[in-house]
Amino acid sequence: MAKTVEADPTAAAKAAEELKRELARLVRAIVHDDEFSAETVDQASRTLCALKDLKANRRSLSLRLSQSSVGLPEEFRCPISKELMRDPVIVATGQTYDRPFIQNWLKSGKRICPRTQQVLSHTILTPNHLIREMISQWCKNNGVQLSDSLQYSDEERLTEADRDRFLSLLEKMSLTQSDQKEAARELRLLTKRMPSFRALFGESLDAIPQLLYPLSQNKSLSSIHPDLQEDLITTLLNLSIHDNNKKLVAETPMVVPLLLDALRSGTIETRSNAAAALFTLSALDSNKALIGKSGALKSLVDLLEEGHPLAMKDVASAIFNLCINHENKSRAVRDGAVGVILKKVMNRMHVDELLAILAILSSNQMAVEEMGDLGAVPCLLSIIRDSSCARNKENCIAILHTICFSDRTKWKELRDEEKTYATISQLAQNGTSRAKRKASGILERLNRAVNLTHTA
């Protein structure tokens, strides 16, 4: 539900309030309804974006009104936005643009100068201090206040020295191994501590290939120094946290293959951070499909089977996120995820995370059949009896519901369980709303079978 507000501040305020009410309604639906749909989440996301855009438009409107009253010099306008530049930067052709607008232009994949249409030899943005000082003086002379409208992001607070340091560290990646290790360690620390350095990688299509040069040039994994691999993979993880980088990182051709190499080799921290990077990147639907097609699920399942405590949560999170994609569910099942996960659950290892994966896989018929064959029913019933976690009980009964309605031979186990422990009846009374529905559905089926038997 997006609205466009041209110039009426009152209308803008009313629209904002309406969007806030709609957002509150959607959030309540997500929080309180266990059966909320994906469309509800999408609507909430769209409403939040509309509210953000409305706020930005109101700030822009205020600035435009100030500019129009005093005659803004043309050279102070950004060629893209046509508005007063707040952070003028110079591109490779020598043209000046407002940083956020030229950044968006470059992030959309365009590699030409908007004004001259020349191909950019690089996408590094250099601050235009002269124009910035002239704009500042003009604003002061004409009573234009930029402070309320000026919202500098982390990347806009970088100094020229920071950018020079960034380029210098990337250049070291093609030098000796000693230089590479030193630069990789520093980039790992900088991208961990400073979001601005994460954003810098989005300004140049060459930055990530430069970062990963030491890994891409080594044909043998054994020839890569473990510390160097760990620092570079962890830097990739840090970059992936920055929302604007997710698409760029995942679609850089060498990234996913190198993450898969890291899942299979190196220190356990390297492997864990590679899994965490895949999890973070898979927040984008397009990345879920791309990563799934790469064969990543097999490597993740293999690492999960190893069961190293440091890696388990990151691996489970990555598998769960990827399996939201329908095709990836089938891939995970083919790659042995059900057997590996069920074995861990039976051994009561990371039950919370792994049950969530089984629940999402239970919409796949092959997964359901495999769960039934591998003894999932008694395992899930025992968790419902013993666990104090309402979400785990809910996931268990949801999986049981799917298994038993798919395979009638499993109903005897449920009847025996109900006679001995009344497990399902108790959940139908005390579980979450979703658990109650699933448990009641099973009880109804059990009672109907008993009545049919008596009638016969």
Automatic annotation (TrEMBL):
Its EC number is 2.3.2.27. CDD domains: RING-Ubox_PUB. Pathway: Protein modification; protein ubiquitination. Residues 71-145 form the U-box domain. It is an enzyme of class 2 (transferase). It catalyses: S-ubiquitinyl-[E2 ubiquitin-conjugating enzyme]-L-cysteine + [acceptor protein]-L-lysine = [E2 ubiquitin-conjugating enzyme]-L-cysteine + N(6)-ubiquitinyl-[acceptor protein]-L-lysine. Pfam families: ARM_PUB, U-box. GO terms for molecular function: ubiquitin protein ligase activity. ARM repeats lie at residues 295-337. Keywords: Repeat, Transferase, Ubl conjugation pathway. SUPFAM superfamilies: ARM repeat (SSF48371), RING/U-box (SSF57850). It comes from the Eukaryota. GO terms for biological process: protein ubiquitination. Gene3D superfamilies: Leucine-rich Repeat Variant, Zinc/RING finger domain, C3HC4 (zinc finger). This is RING-type E3 ubiquitin transferase. It comes from Escallonia rubra.
